[in-house]
Design brief:
This protein has 109 residues and is mainly α. It has one domain. The chain is elongated. It contains three helices and two strands, in the order ααββα. It has a two-stranded antiparallel sheet with strand order 1-2. Helix 1 crosses helix 2 and helix 1 runs antiparallel to helix 3.
Length: 109
């Protein structure tokens, strides 16, 4: 496998994984904001699946209450942080596996 293909595939895989994490956190933020029923099966699945992503961000800020919901600021901080981490990993892959520069054949005069 050439390095160009490897770089592209690793970048795509990184964005896929971090995109899935971002989607989990996005659903969590939305469900908390609208005051979704936490005992509903899908909502519970999202909360349980995204809970471990929030551990490093718990206690940084409080979670303000709204009428019927909450603004999950730790989840918003996590969402932004994981986006930055994903971008940094992709940039690291680009640095470690730079594009192959093909040299044109020397023209004969």
């Amino acid at each position: 496998m050439n390095t160009d293909l490897l770089r592209i595939q690793l970048s795509r895989l990184t964005w896929l994984v971090f995109g899935a994490l971002e989607a989990l956190l996005g659903f969590r933020i939305f469900f908390k904001l609208i005051g979704a029923n936490p005992s509903a099966q899908f909502v519970r699945l999202i909360y349980e699946a995204s809970g471990w992503l929030l551990r490093p961000f718990r206690g940084i800020v409080s979670t303000p209450q709204l009428a019927g919901g909450v603004i999950d600021l730790p989840a918003m901080i996590a969402l932004m942080s994981y986006l930055v981490v994903g971008g940094l990993i992709v940039q690291l892959v680009r640095v470690l596996l730079p594009p192959t520069i093909e040299q044109e054949p020397a023209s004969q005069a």
